[in-house]
Amino acid sequence: MRPITKSSKLANVCYDIRGPVLDRARRMEEDGHHIIKLNIGNPATFGFEVPEEILQDVIHNLSEASGYCDSKGLFAARKAIMHYTQEKQIPNVQMDDIFIGNGVSELVVLTMQALLDNGDEVLIPMPDYPLWTAAVVLSGGVAKHYVCDEQSDWLPDLDDIRSKINHRTRAIVIINPNNPTGALYPKEFLLELIEIARQHQLIIYSDEIYDKILYDDATHTSIASLADDVLFITFNGLSKNYRAAGFRSGWAIVSGEKSHATDYIAGLNMLASMRLCANVPSQFGIQTALGGYQSIYDLTLPTGRLKRQRDVAWGLLTEIPGVSCYKPQAALYLFPRLDPKIYPVVDDQQFVLDLLLEEKVLLVQGSGFNWMNPDHFRVVFLPNTDDLTEAVGRIAHFLHRYRKRHSI
After folding, report:
1. For the ranges 26-30, 168-172, 253-257, which has the lowest average pLDDT?
2. Nearest partner of 98 among 286, 230, 239, judged by Cα
3. Measured over all CA atoms, what is the biggest interatomic distance in the chain, rounded to whole angstroms?
4. 3-class DSSP state for residue 214?
5. What pLDDT does 16 receive?
6. Burial call 53-67: b when 16+ CB within 10 Å, e when fewer
7. In the 3-class helix/strand/coil scheme, how is the chain assigned residue by residue?
8. To the nearest whole number, what is the mean pLDDT of the chain?
9. If you ran DSSP here, which 8-state letter would residue 116 be given?
């Protein structure tokens, strides 16, 4: 029989957050091992529940959710999102500028498919959330990764961005707040990025799914609120701020200079119509989520669970010899660095696999986020403080043995 092979489009696509190391962890669980999972930002797994009023709205409206809705989403949901853009001071957003999707993930792919011809380039942060790179590649484009500078609190290197722009460059992606670093971009930086996009007539795609998960009095600025002469696509949803990842309800907002993008927007409308609509039941929770009590802030207060877990995980990790880590201002992750003089890691996927096998702790390696060196890994700090203490303790034991094995 002729072998059935996967598409060549997948040759340069990876998603190691759910990759081969996770597959090994599943097999270990089947064999009876207990694995501490710090690999996926899935709030429900760790006891973070959807606010009851959102859940009740979805349940109450289930009888109205059996049919297709408008391809862009329910009227009331899009109206609530439009009001949210006004709170974020994003100008001139109308109902037709809002697309609801099956999570932000679907909309990332959709917006790339509508934009890219073969060989077109998109600037993507390094490290990134790997879906962005995958979506560009699957759409026939080329992902050009610009460096985020750890020594500058993980802010993107503007000179590196400028150096990677050419006649095939179509857009710049930012992830703000950032996954995996937890960085939060200040207004001054965002204005400089807008100027680059303005000079080169680039679209700015801004992934803002963590915009309410902020620590230490940090504030978030939507880049689309800072200009109206550049085209912006802003992404957000229920998954993180409202602990409703399984609802798969996200949205994309088109704003800024839209008059020169009518053909592109027509492409977005076409693709949105082809999938008929996003899942309807969860859309009934959007209005209540955005307009109701924002319980996420209880979790990020100094006494809140997320804030305490961040502090515990960061403190324990940075006590390990040779481990340094930026203290995240936002989101749910730490991205620690291993001093290569102490930990001469060559293959970081093998490194996290060895950690899994020896200590039963599951992480994602830095290269899974398209980071250029095998010296970082991502830690999800969603588990409670006891589990985090246990997990980081196991990481510390593993690194102690690693240092001994590789000491000169």
Report:
1. 26-30
2. 286
3. 68
4. strand
5. 59
6. ebeebbeebeeeeee
7. CCCCCCCHHHCCCCCHHHCHHHHHHHHHHHCCCCCEECCCCCHHHHCCCCCHHHHHHHHHCHHHCCCCCCCCCCHHHHHHHHHHHHHCCCCCCCHHHEEEECHHHHHHHHHHHHHCCCCCEEEEEECCCHHHHHHHHHCCCEEEEEEEEHHHCCEECHHHHHHCCCCCEEEEEEECCCCCCCCCCCHHHHHHHHHHHHHHCCEEEEECCCCCCECCCCCCCCHHHHCCCCEEEEEEECCCCCCCHHHCCEEEEEEECCHHHHHHHHHHHHHHHHCCCCCCHHHHHHHHHHHCCCCHHHHHCCCCHHHHHHHHHHHHHHCCCCEECCCCCECCEECCEECCCCCCCCCHHHHHHHHHHHHCEECEEHHHHCCCCCCEEEEECCCCHHHHHHHHHHHHHHHHHHHHHHCC
8. 95
9. P
Residue whose C-alpha is closest to residue 383's, from 44, 25, 52: 44
Cβ proximity of 69 and 101 under 8 Å: no
Ranges 16-30, 84-98, 147-161: which has the least confidence: 16-30
pLDDT in tens, 221-243: 999 999 999 999 999 999 999 99
What pLDDT shows up at residue 279?
94
Q: In this structure, what is the dihedral angle of CA atoms 17, 23, 27, 29, given to the nearest 10 degrees? A: 10
Q: Can you give the pLDDT at residue 313? A: 98
- pLDDT band for position 18 (cuts 50, 70, 90): low
- Dump pLDDT digits (tens) for 181-226: 999 999 999 999 999 999 999 999 999 999 999 999 999 999 999 9
Type of residue found at 71: S
Please give the order of strands across the beta sheet that includes 377-380. 333-334, 377-380, 364-365
Helix (H) or strand (E) segment spanning residue 266:
helix 262-274
Tell me which amino acid residue 372 is. Answer: M
Instruction: Answer for the pair 115, 87: CB distance below 8 angstroms, yes or no.
Output: no
